Amino acid sequence: MKKTAISLALMTISGLANALSGQVTDAAGNPISGAAVEVTGTLLQTRTDEQGRFSLDTASGAANELHINAPGYSHQTLRLENADAAPLVITLRRSAIEQIDVTATPLHTSTMESAQPVTVLAGDSLRRKQAATLGETLKNEVGVHSTYFGPVASSPVIRGLSGPRVLITQNSLDVSDASRVGPDHVVATEALTAEQIEILRGPATLFYGSGAIGGVVNVVDDRVPASSDSKGAFQFGHSTVNSEEDASFAYTGGGEQFAFHVDGFTRKGDNYEIPGAAELESEHEHEADEHEAHEEHEAHSVGILENSASDSKGFNIGGSVLLDNGFIGLAYGRLERVNGIPGHSHAHGDEHGDEEHGEEHAESEMHEHEEEAEVLSDLKQDRWQLISELSLDNNLLSGVNTRIGYTDYEHVEIENNQTGTLFQNETVQARVDLLLQEFAGWRGAVSIEGKTSDFAAVGEEAFTSPSRTDTLAIALMQEKHMGDLLWQLGARVEKVSIEADPIPWEAHEHEHEGEHEGEEHEHEEAALLVFDELNFTPYSVSAGVVWDFAADYNAGVSLTHAQRAPSASELFSYGPHIGTGSFEVGALFDLHVTDEPHFDYGNAVEEEVSNNLDLSLRKHSGDIGWVVNLFYNQVGNFFYERDIGFTSEDFESHAHEEHDHDEHAHEEGEEHEHAHDHGALPVYVFEQADSVLYGMEAQMAWQFSEPFTLTLWGDSIRGKLKDGGNLPRIPPVRLGGQLAYAHNGWEAAFGASHYFEQDKVADLETATDGYTLVDAELGYTFASNFGDMTVFLKGHNLTDEEARVHASFLKDRAPLPGRSFSLGMRGTF
Questions:
Q1: 790 within 8 A of 827, measured Cβ to Cβ
Q2: pLDDT confidence tier of residue 404, bands split at 50, 70 and 90
Q3: Can you tell me the mean pLDDT for 477-504?
Q4: What is the distance between the alpha carbons of residues 507 and 503, in angstroms, rounded to a whole number?
Q5: Domain-located, residue 110
């Protein structure tokens, strides 16, 4: 922050090379060591020594603005104008609320210096919150919830939005997995080896494109090192709720001209313990035999969430050439993960069982086989990244940042050791940020980006056609300090093209002919439905201002008009999505409700249009710090999945003659091992409708004595359709608090979060009861010959509360884990 609580004497910058020097102190005049001092808009930066002193080699006109930050202090931004020849003396004020710089944007910003709300997890705070999935790691951040597809797959939900609206990136490049297609797919990135995780709440389309209309989660690690400063870290631990063992390490080092990095992790856990039964009793189970079968199946899952074990491992290795004006580096990463899919079971048995054994026997056999079914997801990802950051000294550009990524992702769903559906995603992405020289006080960047994604799902549960998405974009971002105001402006335009492979399709008008013309017509090969190539040109514009209206306070206002091209799965889906227990139909298909309901291809779709307003009020210095955000997001042509009240059996003869090959094989005497009978799945159709989402986010930190800090937080989200009704799976109101103690190496914390009942539900959606989760942790840090070491003990859900996540497709089949304790050690060297 730019504030007047600074005692300084500014120096002139002559036409010759000069050393810009000074000292950073606290309010009492004590030196602050390790403070970061950087010339804004360049790669020129340094850290203060033990006496708080710093020195930067700079040239004429190169240093127009400095940014200074240190852990536990409020940031400072200084304009170097009307200078005289004396060293700088800079005073930083303490802050009870954590402030961290953001790397996710080409412009400099921090959690307190952005018109748009930003959250950053880093350092010990990140280490304490790390979990097996990204969604569970971030679920207690204000404005962020989790899809929670059991403990094995969980993605962030930002202000009620998830899926293709929330972009997940790793070092600002798309993670390129299948997690944006369905909540049952794992996010292919790892928090254990991350340096920090950045959350941009609200539209971030200017920086990342239309896929970020709801927000961005950027996982930052050091796989492409920017310096050769030697640093290392490790962690290992054990969790009781699933007997999970985890371990990770990271090291960066090198010399004057070369830096290298290596990291790795492993995590393995059994099925999770849960309070009570996994599945809520269905209100529609009226018949005694069905109820008895349900109780028999339920008995096997009381206290355990079946099929929730996981085993994952990965590593990254990279190196950089260090230049006088920056670095150029390359990294390779490998991620492997095998996990169960909770709530994912098939009914196995002879498809002619009704004829041979009678309906009652077939039903009991089905339940028996459901209990034996084990469905696994086997994920592998190879990822290459080339990253460079170079400062320049010419009349137009101050620097060029380049990021190029190639990702080869696949995961296979395996049932009883047999391969089912294969999901693949191959992505090539290149992004260049041209950092512009300051002109008339305006500083910014031009961003040029291209991305190609080939996505395919092949197998019996392939609910969407293989598709290719090409994107080309250009964006301009600018900011300017004008007195106590920081203006931030931006615009972006994209060209998005989507094409998909044809799918088998039997036109509705021919369905009755088969009934009259005989059995042979039922086995004729279905015609192919050829999809048209779709092209979109979404654009975004944004204006924001941060106003330092008083000492220690600022206010932010951000207005964004953003458009989003729909994803391939929202358009082309037509089939059973067993992970979510639904039959999904894309927006290109038009529903006709007749005596025999059916879908026709050819529905028109448009870009999603968001008009978003963010208001923020912040107190960033002193013993009390707080942030309050209000947001209002009006979305036209909003894509959402609507439960239309039909089941897949109502449409099963219309497309996807899945079992023809099994029937022919049976007739020819071939071995018929099993057939998948998905049963009557509810049909969810992607539709477009005008909607509105609004809410509030608040957090406060009060350091009422030297060792004690009280933190309170809460958020609320309301999602409605403009024509009436509620959006599905909108998270409930929640409140949380934590009392933390830190003194002489000891750290302790006790906290609770309460989730209120969510009864503002969509049609055919059930309400979710409220619950309270109680957590605690204790740690001790000590010095050793290897560096600082911390031994920790954590307890989660100490009251063993049954808790179900309303935003989850599995809320009635997979509660949150029960009481858990984790013991471990972490260290830095």
A1: yes
A2: very high
A3: 93
A4: 12
A5: no
How many angstroms from the chain centroid is the CA of residue 138? Answer: 8
- Give pLDDT tens digits for 762-775: 988 999 999 999 99
563-to-204, 367, 477, 633 alpha-carbon distances in Å: 11, 47, 17, 12
What's the pLDDT tens digit per position in 367-396?
Answer: 344 444 577 889 999 999 999 999 998 889
Q: Is 148 left (phi over 0), alpha (psi -120 to 50) or beta?
A: left
How far is Cα 101 from Cα 585, in angstroms, rounded to an integer?
42
From residue 356, alpha-carbon distances to 289, 518, 567, 662, 707 in Å are 20, 24, 45, 17, 74
Which of 762, 676, 752 minimizes the C-alpha distance to 718?
762
pLDDT (tens digit per residue) in 529-548: 899 999 999 999 999 999 99
Q: What span, in angstroms and rounded, lies between the C-alpha atoms of 330 and 171?
A: 12
Task: Mark whether 210 and 281 lie in a shared domain.
Answer: yes
485 has which bridge partners? 482, 547
Q: What is the CATH number of the domain that holds 60?
A: 2.60.40.1120
Residue 519 domain-assigned (yes or no): no
Same domain, 546 and 678: yes
186: domain CATH number is: 2.40.170.20
In contact, 773 and 756? CB cutoff 8 Å: no
Distances (CA, A) of 234 to 269, 605, 800: 19, 50, 30
Q: Which residues contact 652 (CB under 8 A, 6 or more apart)?
A: none
Q: 680: Cβ–Cβ under 8 A, 6 or more apart, which residues?
A: 647, 648, 649
Contact present, 57 and 17 (Cβ < 8 Å): yes
Same domain for 70 and 163? no
């005073």: which residue's tokens? 91
Over residues 281-313, the pLDDT tens digits come to 754 444 444 444 444 444 455 789 998 999 999
What distance in Å separates the CA atoms of residue 693 and residue 635, rounded to the nearest whole number? 8
pLDDT interval class at 676 (50, 70, 90) = low
Q: Which of 94, 110, 133 is the last residue of a domain?
A: 94
Q: Is 602 found in the same domain as 545?
A: yes
Q: CB-hemisphere CA count at 13 Å for 197?
A: 26
Length of the chain: 829
How many whole angstroms from its chain centre is CA 593?
37
Between CA 156 and CA 162, with CA 159 as vertex, the angle to 5 degrees is 40
For residue 19, report the phi and psi dihedrals to the nearest 5 degrees.
-105, 120
Q: How far is CA 386 from the centre of its chain?
A: 22
* 551 and 666 both lie in a single domain: yes
- Give the pLDDT confidence score for residue 680 in this predicted structure: 83
83 plus 145 within the same structural domain: no
How far apart, in whole angstroms, are the C-alpha atoms of residue 572 and residue 587? 7
User: How do 272-273 and 304-305 pair as beta strands?
Assistant: antiparallel
φ and ψ of 514, to 5 deg: -65, -35
Distance (Å, whole) CA 465 – CA 564: 21
Phi/psi at 624 (5° precision): -120, 125
DSSP character at residue 706:
S
pTM of the model: 0.86
Q: CA 399 to CA 418: how far, in whole Å?
A: 52
- As given in the structure block, the two tokens for residue 710 are 């009280």
Is 340 in contact with 310 (CB distance < 8 Å)?
A: yes
Q: Which phi and psi angles does 811 have, rounded to 5°?
A: -60, -30
Residue pair 180/169 in contact by the 8 Å Cβ criterion: no
Domain extent at residue 76: 18-94
